[in-house]
Amino acid sequence: MKKLSRRSFLGNTTLLSFTGLLGLMPSLYRGRQEQKKVFIHHVYFWLKNPDAAADKEKLVEGLNTLKTIDVIRTAHIGVPASTNRDVIEKGYNISWMLLFDNLEEEEMYQKHPVHLKFVDNYSHLWSKVVVYDSVDI
């Protein structure tokens, strides 16, 4: 049996490791492609009384009740940022952004009793609502 030198052993080991990694590349890439796509539901609220802090607090209180709906992956309540560029819409008072795994889960959210109760209990606070739904491409 031929004895391998340390240099030869390390060289062969490195080559084998690299070859193995190349063999895994297609499956790693395929795994990235097969990641769940995200459904984003972004709602912008214009309050009837935009200067009334109590109305803003009440709407935020209502939005927080929606976070209990189990199909929501991520929820975010926000206000306009202090950024200033011509393309930025800052006329809304509160934004509500939700991430779902798919359209079906967003539709479940729309029909959920907690969501329906939210609309009944808090819709008197807003004068306008604009919704942007988007999906990964």
Automatic annotation (TrEMBL):
Superkingdom to which the source organism belongs: Bacteria
Record Pfam families: Dabb
Domain Stress-response A/B barrel: residue ranges: 39-134
Gene3D superfamilies: 3.30.70.100
InterPro entries in UniProt: Dabb, Dimeric_a/b-barrel
Protein's name in the database: Dabb family protein
Lineage, broadest ranks: Bacteria, Pseudomonadati, Bacteroidota, Cytophagia, Cytophagales
